[in-house]
Design goal:
The complex is a heterodimer of chains A (about 525) and B (about 625). Chain A is an alpha+beta fold and about 525 residues long. Chain A has 20 helices and 14 strands. Chain A has two domains: about 90 residues, PH-domain like, CATH 2.30.29.30; about 400 residues, no CATH class. Chain A has a seven-stranded antiparallel sheet, with helices on one face. The N and C termini of chain A lie far apart (about 55 Å). The chains are: A alpha+beta (about 525), B alpha+beta (about 625). Chain A: This is Myotubularin phosphatase domain-containing protein.
């Protein structure tokens, strides 16, 4: 009902331009509660999820108007509309409808595709199953339901895995000592070396350098449960100086004296607004077809996106190497522990764990290390690279992760079971999706909104047989080894399939891939 | 041999070029008459041809020995540490001598012996026949004739003997025109487009100065435009920047005055000269050789080198040329100053866009023979085969190869050959192992008696054809499918596999190419099996009608088919990418992978700043 108030006009005649050299579509344009529709003929329907609109620009001249829509998936569309009033009305409707913030009235709550049953796929990748497996394998770890009603940590899932030697009471105290209650939990168990990867948020040492016996005990128990003589490393994703400064605001970092056996490494990763700006500037440069090669190279340098890719990959390599070669346990955190922390822990797993490179394993990884681990998708992906709105909480951390995975795929083209298409799909759906998978900022919020019972899961769509063929890497062969990529600038490439997706070369690589499929 | 004083040095260290922790392999260095050979403790051999050495440098003595840095023309850079200074000095002096020969006769090609007899060698030289190529294009015909004017190299020393000119161009016109062109390089046919009846012609700049003109030259250009029955006007492309062309006027050279030539459309395309290109590549290599290079320095270095801008300029010119023929049906005359560098680039690349034949393995060889070798691109001077003027060295041909590589990236199915083919050709323009690229023009090559004394590269490449095939090539394309490459800025990328050919750590750890190649091969084999079996079944069936019982047929197929068995084994083997798995293992091996230096970072994590490997980084604790 509330949509009708926002809809200024029903329909208008319009012409749609999908790209610089794409054919024009002409037909009746129509704005509905969640979509922009254009029907060029009685049978055809072109449709855009309004949520996908990142920025809108209108121009009127004479008897007609032009609306340029820049989408979150980086597409740029142009609509030529008959009638000035109609143009303005449609523009206003799109503007209002695309920026609605309410989750429970969003499209996933209305989307009922054929062939999928509600609630079906929400059990595809329950992280509990992974945790249970680890608990079974190691004996030093247990599944704790201390966060059953999200009281300890609102951004953690209900079940987490913690050292067996630490009881729930101690966890509660450790949670109070960590920002947002994110006490150290297991992220990955590396069976071959008998070491573990943990993640948390920063300790709240503050200017007085407070300590917390239970938190210290927890990390001691981690080392005691690992291979005998194992060292611990805290990989702090902030610079030493930034970590120190955080003390003034009540945060901080683990003091060496308080955590015997643990050493700290600082590997500053870009986050927040600078990362968002890097993304915006890269996309801007990619949209300029007229620039000289020199200008392009200088913009590629200026936006620093590939420098961020390099930093993220090398920090993940460092972490993975610490586990595999040094047999060390590693705790990763930055400040909140919901962004660069997850970037590092998920990439390290991809490097070390052959299972996470399979189609199912990778979906599990995304579900466990991003969605369940409380990456605030709703805040981070509220706007993409085109929005004029001042960025508040937006940051393309997840996209950076996907880019790093893509780089791994380029360097190890036979070792990932999935292809570029899956990464592109995840990017699109993280920003705007008819599915509920990426809704909200945490498991707690998803429970409140009843996402699981009221929306469909993206995984169920992606795991349909007809989708699978598009997403698979035809050349995949299981590679049991760790993947050590080169992170030299000469080895990293711009992800053309994403950033230049809509300005493609004359012979798109898909054609060649079709041939690869034939050969295979 | 008189240059070699020390033939073997033990305990030599080879440093990893990009390692910041001075990691090294120890081994033995051997010096032979043709190669420098390093065998490391894993028995891995590194062969460096003396002719590939661009520079040898002896650095200041260190505690561990005397460092020797060798830069090669194929972009290999090796860094040895020789324990004793005297040995280092000997090797240094020997290499200086061996890498710079004064006479052609001392080059490797004259001693290279692949154990072939004279007939085989001669047959090799006959593999590429340019007369046949012009015939393929459809000349001579009613508009174009073979001229014998230069049969004795009397008109132009740097042109081939056989030249194609318009039917109406008489000898006096040719002679007159050649006197009005730099080095006598008058307008001749480079490529004839049969469908469009339009031609690509090439020449050098006119000696027009500020006002000179030449009626014969004007006649010749008119003859060229008239040889095109469809379009009356023709393009004259001056591939130089306008400023350079104008400066040449002061020296009595210059460019065509549109007023003096009827029906020409004159166009500058702005490709820089050999000196600009040389220093541009120099800058690029400097940047990429930096240890611990950051992403931002890499891109700003690429930008300031201007290399990709130059590559794009060549590509733009070729596209302009192809469009003039395809869209306007106009003939085009291309020149620069002498007409053997930029002109060769633009004519050959333009033809490659227009004619899919040049995108096959054999066709590409023909293209190089025609537009580069026969028309006198000065390979020996540009590649520095002999000890000569370093200012004549320039990566003009490399730029052409790079343009072709860019096309293969944009059109993965359009080329019969792969990147390895381009790299191999590049290897041999410098190797002086074969006769093809020795000398600066055909006349010189004949005087050197190359066809009697050396071997041609092409048959050797064809023997290895399998290595150079592009598995994605789709030959269904018609002869005249024109490539229309994108020239937006992001289509131009750094060619890592050329400039870091030997820096294995920078490469992808697994190769898609190898596996597809294997699978393709295996598919073919299996298809053959199927055919064999089918024909066997047919035979059996025929026999059966003669009275052989069915049971026997079924029984006999399996034991009787060892070929099927082997092919299945073959399948298993290739499905497991043996090489790639090995490479991955190699990549995870501490000796080979620079990540292992992380170990140091970990063990040394106490100090405040630890510098990490591959420049990533500094770590603070």
């Amino acid at each position: 009902p509330q949509y009708s108030e926002l809809m200024r006009t029903g329909r208008a005649q319009a012409e749609l331009l999908l790209g610089p050299e794409a054919p024009r579509l002409r037909g009746t344009l129509c704005v509905t509660g969640h979509h922009l529709l254009l029907s060029p003929g009685p049978q055809d329907l072109w449709l855009l999820l309004l949520r996908n609109v990142d920025s809108i620009e209108k121009r009127v001249a004479g008897e007609s108007g032009t609306i340029t829509l820049r989408c979150k998936d980086l597409r740029v569309l142009q609509l030529d509309i008959e009638g000035v009033e109609a143009t303005l009305d449609i523009a206003r409707s799109i503007e209002a409808l695309s920026s609605l913030e309410s989750v429970i009235t969003s499209f996933p709550f209305f989307y009922r595709p054929k062939g999928l049953r509600l609630g079906d796929a929400w059990h595809f990748h329950p992280p509990e199953s992974y945790y249970k497996r680890v608990a079974r394998e190691t004996k030093a770890w247990r599944l704790s339901e201390v966060n059953e009603n999200f009281s300890l940590c609102p951004s953690y899932p209900r079940a987490v895995i913690v050292p067996r030697a630490v009881d729930d009471k101690a966890l509660a105290l450790s949670a109070r000592f960590r920002q947002g209650g994110r006490f150290p939990v297991l992220s990955y168990h590396h069976a071959r070396s008998g070491t573990v990867l943990l993640r948390s948020s920063q300790p709240l040492t503050g200017p007085q350098k407070r300590r917390c016996a239970e938190d210290e005990e927890l990390l001691r128990a981690v080392l005691a449960g690992a291979r005998p003589g194992a060292q611990g490393f805290v990989v702090d994703t902030r610079s030493a100086q930034a970590a120190k400064q955080a003390r003034m605001a009540g945060g901080g970092t683990e003091a060496k004296a308080a955590y015997p056996g643990w050493k700290r490494l600082h590997r500053p990763l870009e986050r927040g607004r600078p990362l968002q700006e890097s993304f915006v500037r890269l996309v801007e440069a990619c949209g300029d077809l007229e620039q000289s090669t020199d200008h392009w190279l200088s913009r590629l340098e200026g936006c620093s996106w590939l420098a961020h890719v390099k930093e993220a990959l090398s920090t993940a390599c460092l972490t993975a190497q610490g586990m595999e070669r040094e047999g060390a346990c590693i705790l990763v955190h930055g400040a909140e522990g919901t962004d660069s922390t997850l970037l590092v822990t998920s990439l390290a797993q991809l490097i070390l764990d052959p299972l996470s490179r399979t189609m199912v394993g990778f979906q599990e990884l995304v579900e466990r290390e991003w969605i369940q681990a409380g990456h605030p998708f709703q805040l981070r992906c509220a706007h993409s690279a085109f929005s004029h709105a001042r960025p508040k909480h937006e940051a393309p951390t997840f996209l950076l992760f996907l880019d790093c995975v893509w780089q791994l795929g380029r360097q190890f083209p036979l070792s990932l079971e999935f292809g570029e298409a899956l990464l592109l799909a995840l990017f699109e759906h993280a920003y705007a999706s008819p599915f509920g998978t990426f809704l909200c900022n945490s498991e707690k919020e998803r429970c409140l909104c009843e996402v699981r019972s009221q929306t469909h899961s993206l995984w169920s769509r992606l795991n349909q047989p007809k989708e699978q063929r598009k997403l698979r890497n035809p050349l995949y062969v299981l590679n049991p080894l760790a993947l050590w990529p080169s992170v030299e600038p000469q080895s990293l490439q711009l992800w053309q399939g994403l950033f230049l997706r809509w300005t493609r070369p004359p012979e798109p690589p898909e054609v060649a891939w079709e041939k690869v499929w034939q050969i295979v | 041999m008189e240059h070699i004083r020390t033939t073997k040095v033990e305990q030599v260290k080879a440093l990893d070029r990009f390692s910041t922790s001075n990691k090294s392999l120890t081994g033995t260095l051997y010096l032979t008459a043709t190669h420098l050979l390093f065998i490391d403790s894993h028995q891995k051999e590194t062969w460096i041809l003396h002719h590939h050495i661009a520079s040898v440098e002896k650095l200041a003595l260190t505690t561990s020995g005397c460092p020797l840095v060798i830069q090669c023309k194929n972009f290999r850079i090796v860094h040895f540490i020789v324990p004793r200074e005297r040995d280092c000095h000997d090797i240094y002096n020997s290499l200086l001598q061996l890498s710079k020969q004064a006479k052609y006769e001392d080059l490797y090609a004259f001693s290279y012996n692949p154990k072939q007899n004279d007939a085989e060698r001669l047959q090799g030289w006959q593999l590429i026949d340019l007369a046949e190529e012009y015939e393929r294009m459809g000349v001579p015909n009613s508009h174009w004739q073979l001229s014998d004017a230069n049969r004795e190299y009397k008109i132009c020393e740097t042109y081939p003997r056989e030249l194609y000119v318009p039917q109406v161009a008489s000898k006096p016109i040719i002679v007159g025109s050649s006197k009005f062109r730099s080095k006598g390089r008058f307008p001749v046919l480079s490529y004839y487009h049969q469908d469009k009846e339009a031609a690509i012609c090439r020449c050098s700049q006119p000696l027009s100065g500020f006002s000179a003109r030449c009626l014969e030259d004007e006649h010749l250009l008119q003859a060229i435009s008239k040889a095109n029955p469809v379009n009356r006007y023709m393009y004259v492309m001056d591939t130089r920047p306008k400023l350079n062309a104008m400066a040449n006027r002061a020296a009595g050279k210059g460019y065509e005055n549109e007023d003096n030539y009827s029906n020409i459309r004159f166009q500058f395309v702005g490709i820089e000269n050999i000196h600009v290109m040389r220093s541009s590549l120099q800058k690029l290599l400097e940047v990429n050789g930096t240890k611990g290079l950051s992403v931002n320095d890499f891109y700003s270095g690429m930008e300031s080198s201007g290399w990709l801008r130059h590559v794009k300029a060549v590509m733009d010119a070729a596209i302009f040329l192809a469009k003039a023929i395809m869209v306007e049906n106009a003939s085009v005359l291309v020149h620069c100053s002498d007409g053997w560098d930029r002109t060769s680039q633009v004519c050959s690349l333009g033809s490659l866009l227009l004619d899919s034949y040049y995108r096959t393995i054999k066709g590409f060889m023909v293209l190089i023979e025609k537009d580069w070798i026969s028309f006198g691109h000065k390979f020996s001077e540009r590649c520095g085969h002999l000890d000569g003027d370093p200012k004549e060295i320039s990566p003009v041909f490399i730029q052409f190869l790079e343009c072709v590589w860019h096309l293969t990236e944009q059109f993965p199915q359009a080329f019969e050959f792969n990147e390895a083919f381009l790299l191999q050709i590049h290897e041999h323009i410098h190797s002086c192992q074969f006769g093809n690229f020795l000398g600066n023009c055909q006349k010189e090559r004949e005087e050197l008696k190359l066809k009697e004394k050396t071997y041609s590269l092409w048959p050797f490449l064809l023997d290895d054809r399998k290595k150079y095939l592009n598995p994605l090539y789709s030959s269904k394309a018609q002869r005249f499918t024109v490539l229309e490459p994108s020239t937006v800025s992001f289509s131009f990328k750094f060619w890592r596999n050329m400039y870091h050919q030997f820096d294995r750590t920078l490469h992808p750890r697994q190769s898609v190419f190898n596996i597809i190649m294997n699978m393709n091969e295996q598919n073919k084999q299996l298809e053959k099996e199927i055919k064999d079996l089918e024909s066997k079944i047919k035979q059996r069936k025929n026999k059966q009608t003669d009275g052989v019982p069915t049971k026997e047929l079924l029984h006999s197929i399996h034991p009787e088919s060892p070929s099927l068995k082997t092919s299945l084994c073959f399948k298993e083997q290739t499905l497991l990418p043996v090489n790639d798995a090995l490479r991955t293992i190699e990549g995870s091996n501490s000796a080979d992978n620079r990540y292992s230096d992380y170990a140091e970072a970990f063990s040394k994590s106490e100090p405040a700043v630890v510098s990490l490997e591959y420049g990533v980084a500094r770590m603070t604790c």
